[in-house]
Design a protein that fits this description.
By secondary structure, the chain is an all-alpha fold. It has a domain of 127 residues. The protein is built from eight helices and no strands. Helix 1 runs antiparallel to helix 2, helix 1 runs parallel beside helix 3 and helix 2 packs antiparallel against helix 3. The longest helix is centred in the middle third of the chain and has 147 residues.
């Protein structure tokens, strides 16, 4: 092959490789720039060598064998360098391709991060709004809590007052219960006295009914005393004699004694305490129950006056 043509091909190849390195340099990152610059310098140097070879061949009219051999050796070295540089360029192009893929992935990741960032910004705005709402709710809740605490204090005070009232009421109830017990005991005592006293009252009434003649009226006061007086006064009369025999028979049957008579009068007196309480007739007018007209109240006053008059007449 013509050496001149071979040298031109080498020069053109180096020019293509230099252009590729420039393209790679424009596309590549800062990390590969140093390698690209070294490769570019080697290619430029090889191109200049090839150019000088071309110029030397053009100036020579004829190449002697020695010079031709040297040129062929230089061309061989340049071809080896060109092959090495071609390999380096291919490696750089491969790295650029891989970097492009990584850049594309990174770009996608960046877009994803941007979307996430936008969503995060929206969430942040919503979170801030929620925090503001929560703050307002907490403020209202705190105010409600303060109000509730005030209400609790008022309720506590109210409950304390109720408890004091209940304690006082309980004391009153306890006293009332105690008074009721006393009243109950008094009522039992009264009932017992009335029952036992009623025995004496029934005794003298039934005894008088039995002793007196059937047509004898004996009233309701001092029945036993009047009966004994009548027996003494009428003992010599047929009616009095019969009545005395009845009375003596009863005395013998029950072993009647002066002690019996004393107990009998004691029973009557105890009954009078409850069955016939002492009456202040002057206060009757003010003690008349409701439900009576003024005219009816006047009649009651007249009756009280008549009772007093009869009492006086009975003592004469």
């Amino acid at each position: 092959m013509d050496i001149l043509l071979l040298a031109k091909r080498l020069r053109d190849r180096f020019m293509i490789q230099i252009n590729k390195t420039e393209n790679i340099e424009r596309q590549n990152s800062e990390q590969m720039r140093e390698r690209i610059q070294e490769l570019k310098c080697d290619l430029i140097e090889n191109k200049e060598i090839a150019q000088r070879m071309i110029e030397g061949i053009n100036e020579s009219v004829e190449l002697n064998p020695e010079k031709r051999r040297k040129l062929e050796e230089q061309i061989r070295i340049l071809e080896e360098n060109g092959a090495y540089h071609q390999t380096q360029i291919a490696q750089l192009e491969g790295e650029i391709f891989r970097q492009d893929e990584r850049i594309e992935k990174l770009t996608e990741n960046v877009r994803g991060f941007q979307i996430q960032l936008a969503a995060t910004d929206n969430n942040l705005v919503e979170t801030r709004n929620e925090l503001a709402d929560t703050k307002n709710i907490l403020t209202v809740a705190r105010n409600d809590l303060v109000g509730t605490q005030d209400e609790l204090r008022e309720t506590k005070t109210y409950l304390e007052a109720i408890r004091n009232e209940l304690t006082e009421t309980n004391n009153v109830l306890t006293k009332t219960q105690s008074d009721n017990e006393l009243t109950k005991n008094e009522l039992k005592k009264m009932e017992s006295v009335l029952r036992t006293g009623q025995i004496a009252f029934d005794f003298e009434k039934d005894l008088a009914t039995y002793i007196y003649p059937h047509d004898k009226k004996f009233g309701s006061c001092k029945i036993f005393t009047n009966m004994k007086k009548w027996l003494e006064e009428k003992k010599n009369t047929p009616q009095g004699s019969e009545a005395n025999e009845k009375w003596k028979a009863l005395q013998v049957e029950f072993s009647w004694s002066n002690e019996h008579e004393r107990v009998f009068f004691k029973l009557l007196e105890s009954r009078k305490e409850f069955a016939h309480p002492v009456l202040d007739r002057n206060s009757v007018q003010s003690q008349i129950p409701d439900g009576y007209t003024d005219e009816e109240k006047k009649c009651i006053t007249d009756i009280v006056g008549m009772v007093e008059r009869v009492s006086i007449l009975m003592q004469q």
